[in-house]
Design a protein that fits this description.
Strand order of the largest sheet: 2-1-3-4-5-6
Subcellular location: Golgi apparatus membrane
Enzyme class: transferase
Radius of gyration: 28 Å
Number of helices: 20
Number of domains: 4
Distance between the termini: 50 Å
Pathway: Protein modification; protein glycosylation
Oligomer: single chain
GO molecular function: alpha-1,6-mannosylglycoprotein 6-beta-N-acetylglucosaminyltransferase activity
Membrane topology: Single-pass type II membrane protein
Length: 562
C-alpha cells in the first residue's frame, strides 16, 4: 500500500495535516494518534506505523475524522507466502482422499432419506481455524505424525472438513494467524468494528479460541454465538462458567469461556451438555465382511500403543498374553528396536492406514494398556472384527486422581471396557451418520435461543436418585439428558408435577440445580442458565432431569429432530 504520492514507505513520507472545516477534529485526532498509536495493536493491524501519513490514512479510511486523501489511488494486493507443507496437513489430505468414495455414497443415501430437508438446507459461510496446527501454537503435532504421535485430533478435523464440504457449505480454512480473516481488528477494542463477521459459523479449538481472543479483544464477546469449539474431552458447565469455576474450585487451564456448553463439540458423546461431533471409521462392504470372518487368525493380537513409552512396565502383562497369542505392535522407530517392546512382539513399525487396516482384519484381539484412554483406533479395530480389551481402573481415573486429566474441564471417570466379536460399526461413526448429525446442528443450533430445538414434544421429566447425575438418571430410563430443555423445567411447577413438596424455594448458582432434598424439603432453581448441567451429582439432592428419546444409532438427535 502506498502511503504518500512520492514515497513507498509512509514512515519516511511527509504528509500535511489538512485543515478542513468539514473535519474540525482532524488535527486533534492526529495529535492523539502521535501520542497513543502504540496503545493498542489494532492500529498497527490497519497499517499505522507512526508516520503522519499512516495516521491520516487511518483517520480518513477506517475512522471518519479526516477528509479522504486525493492521492490514495495506488493500492497493491497483499501477497501471502505459501503455507509450508506440514505432515499433519498431508495426513489429513490423504485421509480425505482415501474416504472420498465412502463420503459420496453416504451423501447419496442421506439425500434419499431426508429429501426436501436435505435439499432445502441453509447454505452457510464457515471459517475453520485449526488452532493447534498454527505456527503460533507450536504446531506440536506435525513432528509426531511420522513418529506415531496422537493422530485422533487430525482424524476428527479431516472428517469435519469433509462433512462440511460434502454438505455444500462455503468454507474458508485457516491454519495460521495471518490467514485468520475475521473482519475485525486485533487488540483490545480501541478500533471500531468494520461490520459483521464475514462468517456465519467459526469452527476452532481451544488454541484457536485463545488466538481469536488475542486477535479480536472485546469484539469476541459480541460474536461468541458464532463459535463452535472442537473439544476432545468435553467441557462441563461447572468448568465453563468463569466466576462459578473460580469460586468453587473448577477453574482449569481450559474451560471458563462462558459459552453455551452445546458450542463445545466432542470426539465421543461423553456428556449431553456438549454436542457430539464425532468422526468416522472406514465402512466394510458385504464382501469385505465375509473375507474378514474367513481370514481371522485366532491366536493373533495387535497392541494399541504406537509410542514406546506406552509399553513401559507392561512386559509381565504381555508375557502372559504371549502364552496364548502371537502379539503384534506398530511402534515407531528409526534405526533400533525400542527397548520397551519385548523381543517376542512382532513390531511392524508405524504403518500407513491401509496397512494397519489389513493387520486389524487378520487379528482377533486389539489390546489396550489403559492409555490411550480413547481414540479412533479401538472403533476401527471393532469395525474390522477385533475384540477390544481395555483394562479397568480401580479407582477410576479422573481429574481428582490422575495427572492426565488434571486441568481438563471435566469430572468424568474412565473405567469402561468393550467387547465385540463381529465386525461392527455404529451408525454414528459412519459417514452418513456424521453428515446427518452435522447437518442437524448447522440447521438448528443457530443461536441457542427460542424457538426450541430439539422440539419440546420430546421432553420427559424425571427425578434422579440422590447422588445420581441426570446423565445416569435418563440413561436408566432408556433416554438421553437434553440440556436445551432445562429452561422449561426450571420452574416451581416442575416440582409439583413430580409431587415434590417444597417448604422453601430459592434460586442460586449451583450446577446441580434445579434439584430438591427429601430430608429438608428444600427445593432449588437454577439462577444462571450457563450452569444448566446434565453432569454432576450430590448425595444430598435429587436432581430434576430433562430427558428425551433418541434416534436409533444416533444419540445426538431425538426421533423428531430431523
Amino acid at each position: 500500500m502506498c502511503f504518500c504520492p512520492t514515497v513507498k514507505d509512509g514512515a519516511t513520507g511527509q504528509c500535511e495535516v489538512p485543515k478542513d472545516a468539514r473535519y474540525p477534529d482532524c488535527p486533534s485526532k492526529v495529535d492523539w494518534m502521535r501520542a497513543r498509536w502504540t496503545s493498542d495493536p489494532c492500529y498497527a493491524f490497519y497499517g499505522v506505523d507512526g508516520s503522519d501519513c499512516s495516521f491520516l490514512i487511518y483517520l480518513s479510511e477506517v475512522e471518519w475524522f479526516c477528509p479522504p486523501l486525493t492521492w490514495r489511488n495506488q493500492t497493491t494486493t497483499p501477497t501471502h507466502k505459501p503455507f509450508p507443507k506440514r505432515q499433519s496437513l498431508s495426513f489429513m489430505k490423504r485421509r480425505m482422499r482415501r474416504l472420498a468414495a465412502q463420503w459420496a455414497s453416504a451423501a447419496r443415501r442421506l439425500d434419499d432419506s431426508l429429501r426436501i430437508q436435505w435439499r432445502e438446507q441453509k447454505r452457510v459461510s464457515i471459517l475453520v481455524h485449526v488452532g493447534f496446527l498454527t505456527e503460533e501454537s507450536g504446531d506440536v503435532f506435525s513432528p509426531k505424525v511420522l513418529k506415531g504421535g496422537p493422530l485422533g485430533e487430525m482424524v476428527q478435523w479431516a472428517d469435519i472438513l469433509t462433512a462440511l464440504h460434502v454438505l455444500g457449505h462455503n468454507l474458508k480454512i485457516s491454519v495460521s494467524l495471518k490467514e485468520l480473516l475475521l473482519g475485525v481488528p486485533p487488540g483490545r477494542g480501541s478500533c471500531p468494528l468494520t461490520g459483521p463477521l464475514p462468517f456465519d459459523l467459526i469452527y476452532t479449538d481451544y488454541h484457536g479460541l485463545q488466538q481469536m481472543r488475542q486477535h479480536m479483544g472485546l469484539s469476541l464477546r459480541k460474536h461468541k454465538c458464532h463459535i463452535r469449539v472442537i473439544d476432545t474431552f468435553g467441557t462441563e458447565p461447572a468448568y465453563n462458567h468463569e466466576d462459578y469455576a473460580t469460586l468453587h474450585g473448577y477453574r482449569t487451564n481450559w474451560g471458563y469461556w462462558n459459552l453455551n456448553c452445546r458450542q463445545y463439540m466432542t470426539m465421543f458423546p461423553h456428556t449431553p451438555d456438549n454436542s457430539f461431533m464425532g468422526f468416522v471409521a472406514e465402512e466394510l462392504n458385504d464382501t469385505e465382511r465375509l473375507s474378514i470372518q474367513r481370514n481371522k487368525v485366532d491366536s493373533m493380537a495387535v497392541v494399541y500403543g504406537k509410542e514406546a513409552s506406552m509399553w513401559k512396565g507392561k512386559e509381565k502383562f504381555l508375557a502372559i498374553l504371549h502364552r496364548y497369542m502371537e502379539i503384534h505392535g506398530t511402534v515407531y522407530y528409526e534405526t533400533q528396536r525400542p527397548p520397551e517392546v519385548p523381543a517376542f512382539v512382532k513390531n511392524h513399525g508405524l504403518l500407513p492406514q491401509q496397512e494397519l487396516q489389513q493387520l486389524l482384519r487378520k487379528a482377533k484381539l486389539f489390546i489396550g494398556f489403559g492409555f490411550p484412554y480413547e481414540g479412533p483406533a479401538p472403533l476401527e479395530a471393532i469395525a474390522n472384527g477385533c475384540i477390544f480389551l481395555q483394562p479397568k481402573f480401580k479407582p477410576s481415573h479422573s481429574s481428582l486422581n490422575h495427572e492426565f486429566f488434571r486441568g481438563k474441564p471435566t469430572s468424568r471417570q474412565c473405567m469402561i471396557s468393550f467387547l465385540q466379536v463381529e465386525p461392527y460399526l455404529p451408525y454414528e461413526y459412519t459417514c452418513e451418520g456424521m453428515l446427518e448429525r452435522v447437518h442437524a446442528y448447522i440447521q438448528n443450533q443457530v443461536s441457542f435461543t427460542p424457538p426450541s430445538w430439539p422440539p419440546l414434544s420430546a421432553l420427559r421429566l424425571l427425578a434422579s436418585m440422590e447422588g445420581q447425575s441426570c446423565i445416569d438418571a435418563c440413561q436408566s430410563a432408556g433416554l438421553i439428558c437434553e440440556p436445551a430443555f432445562y429452561r422449561f423445567i426450571n420452574i416451581k411447577e416442575a416440582f409439583s408435577g413430580l409431587e415434590v413438596q417444597c417448604e422453601g424455594l430459592e434460586a442460586e448458582m449451583n450446577h446441580i440445580f434445579p434439584a430438591f432434598s427429601v430430608e429438608s424439603s428444600e427445593c432449588g432453581l437454577q439462577k444462571d442458565p450457563l450452569l444448566f448441567s446434565c453432569a454432576g451429582a450430590n448425595t444430598k439432592y435429587h436432581r430434576l432431569c430433562p430427558c428425551r428419546d433418541y434416534r436409533k444409532g444416533q444419540v445426538a438427535l431425538c426421533r423428531d429432530c430431523l
